[in-house]
Amino acid sequence: MIKAPYLLYLGSTVDPLAIKTSRGIAMFRPEDAIGEFVREGGPLSLGLPQMGFAEAAAAGARTLILGVANAGGMLSEELIDDCEAALEAGLDIASGLHARLRDEPRLVAAAERNGRRLIDVRDAGSDLPVGNGLPRAGRRLLTVGTDCSVGKMVTALHLERAMRARGIAADFRATGQTGILIAGAGVPLDAVIADFISGAIERLSPAREDGGWDVIEGQGSLFHPSFAGVSTGLLHGAQPDAIVVCHDPSRTRMRGLPHYAVPSLTETIAANLQVGRLTSPDVIAVGIALNTSSLAREDALALCRRTAEETGLPVTDPVAFGVENIIDRMEQCFGESLQSSLRSA
After folding, report:
1. pLDDT category, 344, cuts 50, 70, 90?
2. What is the pLDDT of residue 38?
3. 75 within a domain of the structure (yes/no)
4. Could you tell me the CATH number of the domain that includes residue 143?
5. Taking a C-beta distance cutoff of 8 angstroms, is the pair 218, 152 a contact?
6. Are 138 and 173 in contact (CB under 8 A)?
7. Signal peptide location in the record (predicted)?
8. In this structure, is residue 1 part of a structural domain?
């Protein structure tokens, strides 16, 4: 287990999207986020108290969370220097980067010297099964996206919370490092060998007989050449009864691939339903989640209304406006199963 409270690492990161792990923890586990570490001149902040490593340890922090992402998920010299200093100050280190803490000799030595732990969240395990596509009991909802980093995890977490608030049995299933750090369990899907992606999700979201729902965090996009394979395997393994499409309306080009345009919502819905029908023939779309953080409130509401008219689906920004309209649509489409879930809760 990763020991709380946490000090969230921002370092000198300049890309707001690159601190989404730290941001997600601050949003969904605020009680465990004691502060943030920002290097001098670092432009980003989550509004938490800014602390040095020794100061954070004295305030009760137990673990430094490397809540940043960089190209290739590597441990830069700056990161290694800061991690070593945090270990010397008495903090454990938890990382969701692709590069493993345990493979860096300086950090291994510092951890041993100070009796601290190095925790690599992106360890998928070596005993994953190959997917079989067999039907299984229970209901599952999967968030999908027009692109990467458009709010699939945030939408899934808001859906889970809102469903539980209505008395519906629901469990968030994490598939990325941020979600795992928030939920405390999950599978780091981008660290799974391709042949085992669908099997990993079948294991993550097994059959359930309580009438409840698994709300599965999506990854990547079927339209992103770098990550479409992960998105495809996730759709097959999830066997979703319902999908919610996530989209950033301010984005016109795919993240990291300016030579690729972001697909339309109608294209995205059609493609995900087609791929999903291989293992879930009756899958349907139940809503659209927009990230309208760059818009004024009235403009965001107007965009939601227009998008709903164009697609025939409930549309919202989960952070700004909640997800009640999507759950209303789920009750219309899956009323009997939602009610049985409520009775079983």
Report:
1. very low
2. 95
3. yes
4. 3.40.50.300
5. yes
6. no
7. none
8. no
Residue 65 and residue 29 in one domain: yes
**Both tokens assigned to 139:** 């209901």
Q: Where are the alpha helices (DSSP H) in 139-227?
A: 152-165, 177-183, 197-204
Helix axis angle, 324-333 to 152-165, nearest 10°? 70
Residue type (1 letter), 226: S
pLDDT score of 81? 94
pLDDT at 70: 72
pLDDT one-digit tens code per residue, 276-334: 999 999 999 999 999 999 999 999 999 999 999 999 999 999 999 999 999 999 999 99
- 179 and 298, same domain (yes or no): yes
Cα-Cα-Cα-Cα torsion 226, 230, 236, 242, nearest 10 degrees, comes to -80
Q: Number of folded domains in the chain?
A: 2
For residues 215 and 96, state if they share a domain.
Answer: no
Which of 66, 89, 120 delimits the end of a domain?
120
**Which amino acid, 17?**
L
Q: Which residues contact 344 (CB under 8 A, 6 or more apart)?
A: 169, 210, 211, 212
Q: Burial code of 291-315, b = ≥16 C-beta within 10 A, e = fewer?
A: bbeebeeeebbebbeebbeebebbb
Interior CA angle at 272 toward 269 and 273, to 5°? 80
Same domain for 80 and 33: yes
pLDDT recorded at residue 338:
59
Same domain flag for 255 and 295: yes
Closest CA to 279 of 244, 234, 246: 234
Residue 131 has pLDDT above 90, yes or no: yes
134 belongs to a structural domain: no
The DSSP string of 135-155 is --SSEEEEEEESSSSSSHHHH
Rg (the chain; Cα; Å): 20
Write down which residue in 120, 147, 167 finishes a domain.
120
Q: Which residue has the tokens 């509004």?
A: 47
Same domain, yes or no, for 103 and 143?
no
Domain of 265, in residue numbers:
139-344
Q: How far apart are the first and last CA of the chain?
A: 27
**Residue 50 bridge partners (DSSP):** 36
